[in-house]
Amino acid sequence: MREIDEEDKCYRTNFQGMYTGYDTGQVWTVKLFSPDRVIFEPGSLDYPLGQKIYDYFKGTSAEIIKAPIQKVSSIIPGTTEGQRYASGKKTLVVTVKKSLRFDVCKPSADFEFSLVTGCPASCEYCYLYTTQSSKPYLRTYVNLEEIFDSSELPRPA
């Protein structure tokens, strides 16, 4: 469960996206992320997860594009920076993680590895809003076995 604060009221959510107000008992659903476009880096389709994601989005209204990762920013529609940012937030990029090193998680001394990057939300207060200007899209990696092998961590069941 994740706790959130909104207008001085506490809410809790389960993993199905159902929110319940502690003080009101009101229940409502949250719309799940559904991209307008999905961009597949060609090598991503060589992995079972990449093919599974491709098969899933073939049956939706999302535009499917195959392009190298270097072309992603030029594919996202919009004539102004704001329009491109908004369109980017509705874009999923399916790719292969090339650097399998741990990243430093500043300012702590911890390390991390990412299975996804970016965020589909557009929260005005979020610091990511100012750091994602050229890459506001959500990116997911499909070479999970290679990522887990490089980490020497136990694999999830």
Summarize the structure in words:
The structure is a single chain. This protein is an alpha/beta fold and 157 residues long. 22% of the residues lie in helices and 27% in strands. It has a 5-stranded mixed beta sheet with strand order 6-5-7-11-10, with helices on one face. Strands 1-2-3-4 form a 4-stranded antiparallel beta sheet, with no helix packed on it. The protein has a two-stranded antiparallel ribbon with strand order 8-9. The chain is globular. The model is unreliable at 1-22 (pLDDT under 50).
Largest sheet: 5 strands, mixed
- Write down the Rg: 18 Å
The neighbouring-strand order within the major sheet is 6-5-7-11-10
Overall 3D form: globular
Mind telling me the CATH class of the largest domain? Answer: Alpha Beta
Distance between the termini: 21 Å
Q: Which architecture name of the largest domain does CATH use?
A: 3-Layer(aba) Sandwich
| Quaternary structure annotation | single chain
Q: How many H/I helical runs?
A: 5
